[in-house]
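Morning!

As promised:
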Amino acid sequence: MPPTMDISVIIVGGGPVGLTAAHAFSKLGIDFALLERRDIIAEDVGASIVLWPHGIRIMAQLGLLDQLLSIGTELMSGTFQTVNGKAFLRTSSPQLCKTKIHTSKTVTSISSVPGGGIKVLCLDGTSYTGSFTLGADGIHSVSTPKNLCLQVLANEKSNVQFCFLYQLLLPDNSPSKKFTQSDIEAIISRPDVSSRPLGGSGLTVKDAWRLKSKCGITPLEEGILKPEWHFGNQMVLVGDAAHKVTPTIGQGLNMGLLDVVSLANQVSEFVGSAGSSREKVLGGLDGAFRRYRAERLESVEKDYKRSGVVTRLTCWREWRFKLFDRVVMPIPGVDVLLVNKVNSPIMARGLVFRGIRVEREPFEGRVKWKEKMPLLDKTAHDEERKESGG
Ligand SMILES: Cc1cc2nc3c(=O)[nH]c(=O)nc-3n(C[C@H](O)[C@H](O)[C@H](O)COP(=O)(O)OP(=O)(O)OC[C@H]3O[C@@H](n4cnc5c(N)ncnc54)[C@H](O)[C@@H]3O)c2cc1C
């Protein structure tokens, strides 16, 4: 067990980023309570999540890789196709402390407590106190003040396939719209949509709709919160609450995971160096929050830009995007070149928890990680295992 640090964090939101923070804090000896407004923690709302190598590596460092692999599947291919269905590009490509996770808890307000720390109030009247709140409550965070594209993600060995239909509905910068089930049905029943072929499968959107097990519709907002991601010493945001990107290249969660790593490193190192004075710890957290944002911002801005460009590219937002998408992208080798020259160097800069030691680096590839995972002292580790009979 790690030594316990003298701070406690109230995590608002039990989405994937909040839950990852909970795992990280339990590994680092940081006390926490997680408040999630839904009644169940893992609600299946229908969309898939693609984890990239730097995201999977974080899961491995938290000891969650085997569980993840047992419920996930390797992504074998992605297909982009024209509006007529012609495919023009295929790409290949510790038990968490459950008693600290509280569902059916909608956080309504957060206030400071005299002498330092915060108090979080929930809709059901309950309240929680801690050193600071970690806002992981997504795009509508309480913590913060006609072209159509089809994407199919598939694993040929699995029965599960994901179809994404993107449509540019609103001009950029328009306020977010809430969609309902009848909005989905209205879109699917449109003849120009329902008759759309799914690659070379012989199926149409209408067939996929008939065979579906889940469906959903969501506006794809984008933005990076400015000027800060923290409010004094008492609140800091991670994941979609701090930055929201369109999902076309599957980066949103991967970005949130890196936030958690960076923030956990900064907070645990600050608390470790601040000594035993509670006042000094609570009064200096904003420095750790600021360093977290400074470490993440450049990479977040790049991911934000890449996601936005690819979404506009696939929706043919402008003629130059259409030209690039239809003419340049299908050239054999362009996708591989982009992976090697753009994606790999970005992923190689993936962060790791400096306070969580592992037996070995879980993955090594052709492009080397910039930051190595901290390894267990082998002799001490063997002794420890012998003592515990492992
Ligand atoms: C269609 C689609 C496909 C995507 N595919 C990918 C992908 O392949 N790869 C990838 O990396 N990303 C992907 N993303 C993005 C990814 O889903 C998000 O980036 C990720 O879910 C963000 O996690 P989060 O925990 O920050 O926020 P959320 O997932 O939004 O979770 C926020 C949580 O906070 C809770 N909450 C909100 N308000 C309160 C409150 N007041 N009190 C208590 N709880 C509250 C909510 O109920 C929710 O559980 C996709 C997104 C979409 C829409």
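The chain has eleven helices and 15 strands.

Hope this helps with the figure draft.
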